[in-house]
Design a protein that fits this description.
The complex is a heterodimer of chains A (368) and B (294). Chain A has 368 residues and is an alpha/beta fold. Chain A is 42% helix and 15% strand. Chain A folds into 2 domains: 192 residues, 3-Layer(aba) Sandwich (D-Maltodextrin-Binding Protein, domain 2), CATH 3.40.190.10; 147 residues, D-Maltodextrin-Binding Protein, domain 2. Chain B has a two-stranded antiparallel ribbon. In chain B, helix 3 crosses helix 13, helix 10 packs antiparallel against helix 13 and helix 12 runs antiparallel to helix 13. The longest helix of chain B has 33 residues. The radius of gyration of chain B is 23 Å and the shape is globular. Chain B starts with a helix and ends in a 6-residue tail after the last helix. Classes of the chains: A alpha/beta (368), B mainly alpha (294). At the A-B interface, helix 1, strand 6, helix 7 and helix 15 of A face helix 2, strand 1, helix 4 and helix 12 of B.
């Protein structure tokens, strides 16, 4: 027992030394973002983090070190942050997760005096449901879910609405999302039901749709969809508009990928926030502001192929030309009623009872 | 010989040696503490009050499969176990002879074969699994090759076969290496003696080589069975997301914010595996050390 106590004490000592040791001459910024969601210098692109460090050292004459870390899902990110065992200064979660974290008091209100570039955010992205007073978040990218199909295999006349994903003509050629929320979402939009319903009957109806669809599926996938659609291995699948262009870039010779938006469909926004565990809030705000600057914002939008809510980006002639007319019209559809559509069709945080219920239904879909 | 060996070991175990400190700290921090938390979460509810509800739920939850009522998690567990056992058996059938051939080869050949077994392990296993997708797909490399010689196409991706191929490929080295390391240390005079005393090849294998290699086989089986029962990556990628194994169930609960039930599933899985290992170890000890007559 005594040895155990000594061991524990030694561990604690090591932690304290590493935790509080050393005077802070170098400012440290910890950024936590989705994987593949920032221009990282690969293939001669703009290396956002390195450029930020360089810019900061010039501007402020101080040393800085940015630690950049990635997550694979909002839930992973939430689990890590909610334990309180980590320290991040800037995170970029999705809308419904921002709503949840704000509700659970895990986010800090931003000081917009340090983020002057916020003025360039399109008015459509103000006052949305996840942050009605624009207190906690600065939108980074947004997207709309559409359906991608291989026109060499799929009759374009069939390519309307969500029905294509339930079309028996294409049995064995269809891909569905491999996560409960998105999969139930496709069924909800098909039935024109709310994706945020608290009524079990709605989810039951969507469950029936998914069970009908199940024998028609090639599989349930997430990022594998790139490879499967590009190679012609599967013919139909729903995914995010930006990703369609990534696939288009890599499609095989005998594959002709097309894209359309079913109506209604999913809208989502990922936004930059500062979590409660932030150690240097001012620096975090400086970073957020930098991300909205001309060079960084355009580089990131070009790298990820996702639409940017930043006016500087989509009004920039060079950016518009690089993207091309087709991509611009798909990525930035007419925006007049974006806020209304978004508030109606975006995912919201579900209560625990509903989450449990969907998860049980999802397990049923999967084990059948 | 044995009692002396034991006595010595015990003396070492009793005295706390300073060299062990880093390892002790490491295992305390990264093995004991996390395991404690898994157990703690498994037996608590959202407000961290004691409950056995999570454990009960695992055994009682039901759902409909093909019109029949089934126990959801027991079914998922049984399916995972089935795939894991099949993979382990195949790994053993393939790996055991490989280990024997390696152990009995010349020194240089042994080194080359060892490197050949290890090289794939230098690559990330996620990438290797992903590569199998492009091999096994309907439009993949295998089917193109078959097409060339006028065969096929074979539909493998998304089937149980694909998942098993992936598991066997990924985990085969974990069977070969422990068996090999035991066999390489084997006293080959015993084999000669057995032959002199009139054993045929099969009898040598059955009565000498196999019993001597059992500790290696046991760790091989453990090292293949455990990761293959809890994998969700291989089944997701090569099973086209159509398989729902115990690892998927844990992940699903995690996403649905049910950390406590996720921990309960992990806890039960751990207990079952520990029991399996204890039973196997018991029989190995008996076969290796306890009265070899019969």
């Amino acid at each position: 027992m005594k040895k155990l106590i000594i061991a524990v004490a030694a561990v604690l000592a090591v932690f304290c030394l590493s935790g509080c040791g050393g005077s802070r001459e170098t400012r440290v910024l910890n950024v936590y973002n989705w994987g593949e969601y920032i221009s990282d210098g690969s293939e001669d692109s703009f290396d956002t983090i390195a450029e930020f460090e360089k810019w900061y050292e010039q501007e402020y004459g101080e040393d800085i070190q940015v630690n950049y870390d990635t997550f694979a899902s909002n839930e992973d990110m939430y689990a890590k942050l909610s334990t309180g065992a980590v320290s991040y200064d800037v995170i970029i979660p999705s809308d419904y997760m921002i709503a949840r974290m704000a509700k659970e008091d895990l986010l800090l209100p931003l000081d917009f005096d340090n983020i002057p570039n916020y003025k360039n955010i399109d008015e459509n992205f103000h006052g949305l449901y996840y942050d009605p007073e624009d207190k906690y978040s600065v939108p980074y990218a947004y997207g709309i879910v559409g359906i991608i199909y291989n026109a060499n295999e799929v009759d374009s006349a069939d390519a309307t609405g969500w029905d294509l994903m339930w079309n028996e003509k294409y049995a064995g050629r269809i891909l569905q999302f491999n996560n409960s929320r998105d999969a139930f979402g496709t069924a909800a939009y098909k039935l024109n039901k709310s994706v945020n319903s608290a009524d079990h009957a709605d989810w039951d109806a969507e469950y029936d749709e998914l069970m009908t669809q199940r024998p028609l599926l090639y599989g349930m996938v997430m990022d594998e969809i790139f490879n499967l659609m590009e190679s012609g291995e599967a013919a139909i699948g729903a995914y995010y508009a930006g990703d369609y262009f990534t696939m288009l870039d890599a499609e095989a010779e005998d594959v002709d990928l097309r894209f359309y938006y079913p109506d209604p469909t999913n809208y989502y926004i990922d936004a930059m926030c500062i979590p409660k565990c932030c150690a240097d809030k001012e620096l975090a705000e400086i970073f957020i502001n930098y991300m909205l600057d001309h060079d960084a914002a355009i580089a990131n939008a070009e790298y990820t192929w996702y639409a940017s809510p930043n006016k500087i980006v989509y009004t920039d002639p060079e950016y518009v030309e690089t993207m091309g007319e087709d991509a611009m019209s798909v990525l930035y559809p007419p925006m007049d009623d974006f806020a209304a559509l978004y508030n109606e069709y975006a995912y919201r945080n579900l209560d625990q009872d509903t989450l449990d219920y969907i998860n049980t239904l999802w397990e049923n879909v999967k084990i059948n | 010989m044995k009692p002396v060996e034991r006595g010595r070991r015990n003396r070492h175990a009793g005295s706390f040696r300073i060299e062990l400190l880093p390892y002790s700290l490491w295992s305390l921090l990264f093995i004991v503490v996390p395991l404690f938390f898994v157990a703690y979460y498994a037996f608590t509810n959202n407000s961290f009050g004691f409950t056995t509800e999570n454990i009960t739920k695992f055994f009682t939850a039901t759902s409909q499969v093909d019109g029949a009522e089934v126990h959801t998690y027991l079914l998922i567990f049984a399916r995972s176990l089935k795939l894991a056992v099949i993979s382990t058996v195949i790994c053993f059938i393939l790996g055991y002879p490989i280990a024997y051939i390696m152990a009995t080869a010349g020194e240089k050949a042994q080194k080359i074969m060892l490197v050949l077994i290890m090289i794939p392990m230098w690559m990330n296993f996620l990438i290797r699994t992903y590569a199998w997708m492009t091999i096994l797909q309907d439009t993949g490399i295998l089917n193109s090759l078959l097409g060339f010689i006028g065969l096929g196409p074979l539909h493998i991706i998304g089937t149980e076969t694909a998942v098993i191929i992936g598991m066997v490929y990924d985990y085969l080295p974990y069977m070969v290496l422990p068996v090999y390391s035991i066999m390489a240390k084997m006293d080959y005079k015993l084999i000669e003696a057995a032959r002199d005393l009139g054993c045929n090849n099969f009898a040598v294998l059955k009565r000498v080589i196999f019993p001597l290699s059992l500790p290696g086989v046991l760790s091989g089986i453990t090292m293949v069975l455990i990761p293959s029962i809890s994998t969700f990556y291989i089944s997701q990628k090569l099973g086209s997301g159509k398989f729902f194994l115990i690892g998927d169930a844990i992940e699903g609960q995690f996403v649905a914010n049910n950390l406590h039930f996720a921990a309960a599933i992990a806890f039960i899985l751990m207990i079952v595996l520990l029991i399996c290992m204890a039973i196997m170890k018991h029989f190995t000890n008996k076969a290796v050390y306890g009265g070899g007559r019969k």
